[in-house]
Amino acid sequence: MNARDAGGLIKLSESAERISSTDEDIRGRTVRDRDGEELGTIKDLLIDDDEGKVRFLEVASGGFLGIGQDKTFMPVDAITAVTEDEVRIDQTREHVAGAPAYDPELVRQRENYAGILDYYGVGPFWAPGYQYPGYPYYR
Description:
By secondary structure, this protein is of the alpha+beta class. It has helices at residues 93-97, 104-107, 113-119, and strands at residues 9-11, 30-32, 38-48, 54-61, 70-75, 79-82, 86-89. The chain has 3 helices and 7 strands, in the order βββββββααα. Strands 1, 2, 3, 4, 5, 6 and 7 form a 7-stranded mixed beta sheet that branches. A hairpin with a 3-residue loop joins β6 and β7 (86-89). The protein is globular. This is PRC-barrel domain-containing protein.
């Protein structure tokens, strides 16, 4: 299966899907890099419409009252730890800053997933042998 065969992504907030336990809903939590620096806040979760699994985090940073915020999305596979109020990833602030620009239209185009996943150093979720990270014990 290639990227074109992978399911489309949709924001959890725009879907009929719900997270079964509020403890597992990481929206609103602070994202920190591997050095503990704050990167932003998780605004939404992008799920695939085939399996209903979270594939990317939409992270917003900067701005005032939501105006002028920078947004990026990163694969759920980058998560290393989840606590009650924060999510840790295995990247540096500098690496995340160089990520492909956030474009909500590109999120819905399957052929763009591979480049984003590659940038973060994770394999494609549609590849044979892929194992979804276990919550809350990520790699």
